[in-house]
Write a structure and sequence with these properties.
2 domains, six-stranded mixed β-sheet, about 35% helix, Ald_DH_CS_GLU, oxidoreductase
Length: about 500
């Protein structure tokens, strides 16, 4: 049974409507649930109004989507198409996303809250580049020929697509995270069951239309919006899913890993939380360091797993740096994403809004000093203005726990050794930054920092050809770069005997 259910989403501020499909996307068709009437409401965080509702997938719907992905893997995708064909389709998809970038950005702003300008130029621009980068890899998946005995045998390796992949993406970068997951998986020949966040399902459904238009065979990409405890849990435990890729909280990552282990020991990659340190040494260009530190906490309204949420400045420059930092953060405009003057939007939901304000109140109650922000707005919308705390202590909640909002802790250090100790005093290890004009110090400190990504004299800038991922409780596996291909392939060794005769019995 198929359903052409769509909704015309009205954006009165722009005097336009965007047509959005609201069904589950399985086998290149939008359809209702097989056994549930449940819906997911998509809310505009700038107005707190419901945009529309979409079908919520049940556990049985996940079974249907996985079966479609398996059928495609065995027949029209997987090892049945050449790298050239996969590359061509990825390039076509990138072209279509680029064509529709403005509309996708407007839909992203409506459902996620981020500014249209940033969604279009950064998130979508980067996603198009990501698809094209992996399109370039699709016909370059190679193994090794290995010498065993030149007179009698040799071995070679094949990097086979791992199979059906469950991909669970978060609400902070709905289009970008979609591309990061989809591109390497498709490049090597995997098929996908994609579960977008229940908070931001709209752009994943809109992208699914483009998947079909690009010409991907039915079942190669399936999109199943659902509640995490339903769809995410069903994918993680599914016996016919070969791989789970998840971006989100460490708490949920643990559950996924447990479910994967208890079911079929499927391969797992996890990109989880962070409490990333940002060090400013006395030799740094303080003006630039303040700019990057402001970006590190204000970008995407702080809803970033690599948010530089703990900044430590050397005592000799602390006062000057703090003055500059406050000035820079004050300049950030937090407002409606449909306004071109806006640099960041509201946080994504009421749940997130309450969570962030809970941390701000905890910071005040535990004795940290508010030097900027910390006051609620009277207006509608889930707005949190950037808040900076000083006089922090290592045991404070705001210093230890991931907040996922524009809340910054600023501390000081005296020596390089102390800076490294403070930076590494966390259960996380996703990102870290340092600012210094001493080249030897940059090498020493970047080596000592316990993080999957270290930025030197910049922050939060990623490239599609450079791997990204965490250490410690920030996860395992890597996205981006050639390293991501390893997450979606399994290495098969083939031993070929052409000259050795076996004598029997032994």
């Amino acid at each position: 049974m198929t359903s052409n259910a769509v909704v015309d989403v009205n954006i009165s501020r722009l005097n336009k409507t965007i047509r959005v499909p609201t069904g589950l996307f399985i086998n290149n068709e939008f359809r209702p649930s097989v056994d549930s009437a449940e819906r997911i409401e998509a809310v505009n965080p700038a107005t707190e109004e419901v945009i529309c509702s979409v079908v919520a997938a049940s556990a049985r719907d996940i079974d249907v989507a996985v079966a479609a992905a398996r059928e495609a893997f065995n027949t029209t995708w997987g090892k049945n198409v050449t790298g050239w064909e996969r590359s061509k389709l990825l390039h076509k998809l990138a072209d279509l996303i680029e064509r529709d970038a403005q509309e996708l950005a407007e839909l992203e702003a409506l459902n996620n809250g981020k500014p249209v300008r940033i969604a279009r130029e950064i998130d979508i621009g980067d996603s198009v580049q990501c698809l094209r980068y992996y399109a370039g890899w699709a016909d370059k998946i190679t193994g090794q020929t290995i010498e065993v005995d030149n007179k009698a045998k040799f071995a070679f390796t094949r990097h086979d697509p791992i199979g059906v992949c469950g991909q669970i993406i978060p609400w902070n970068y709905p289009i970008n995270m979609w591309a990061w997951k989809v591109a390497p998986a498709l490049a090597v020949g995997c098929t996908i069951v994609m579960k977008p966040s229940e908070v931001t399902p709209l752009t994943s459904l809109k992208l699914s239309e483009l998947v079909k238009e690009a010409g991907f065979p039915p079942g190669v990409i399936n999109t199943v919006p659902s509640l995490g405890a339903v769809g995410g849990a069903a994918l993680a435990a599914h016996p016919d899913v070969d791989k789970i890729a998840f971006t989100g909280s460490t708490v949920t990552g643990r559950k996924i890993m447990e479910a994967a282990a208890k079911s079929n020991l499927k391969k797992v990659s996890l990109e989880l939380g962070g409490k990333s340190p940002h060090l400013v040494f006395e030799s740094a260009d303080l003006e630039q360091a303040a700019n990057w530190a402001a970006l590190g906490i204000c970008y995407n309204t702080g809803q970033d797993c690599t948010a530089g949420s703990r900044v430590y400045a050397q005592e000799s420059v602390y006062d000057k740096f703090l003055e500059l930092l406050v000035q820079k953060v004050k300049a950030q405009v937090i407002g409606d994403g449909l306004d071109d003057r806006t640099g960041a939007g509201p946080v994504v939901s009421k749940i997130q809004y309450d969570r962030v304000w809970g941390y701000i109140e905890a910071g005040k109650n535990q004795g940290a000093h508010v030097v900027l922000g910390g006051q609620k707005r009277d207006s509608k919308g889930f707005y949190v203005d950037p808040t900076i705390f000083t006089d922090i202590k290592p045991e404070m909640k705001i210093v230890k726990e991931e907040i996922f909002g524009p809340v910054l802790c600023v501390g000081k250090f005296t020596t390089e050794e102390e800076a490294i100790r403070l930076a590494n005093d966390t259960s996380y290890g996703l990102g870290a930054g340092l600012h210094s004009n001493d080249a030897n110090q940059c090498m020493r400190v970047s080596s000592a920092l316990e993080a999957g990504t270290v930025w030197v004299n910049q922050y939060n800038i990623l490239s599609n050809n450079v791997p990204f991922g965490g250490k410690k409780q920030s996860g395992m596996g890597r996205e981006l770069g050639s390293y991501a291909l390893e997450e979606y392939t399994s290495v098969k060794a083939v031993h070929w005997n052409f000259g050795e005769k076996l004598e029997w019995p032994l």
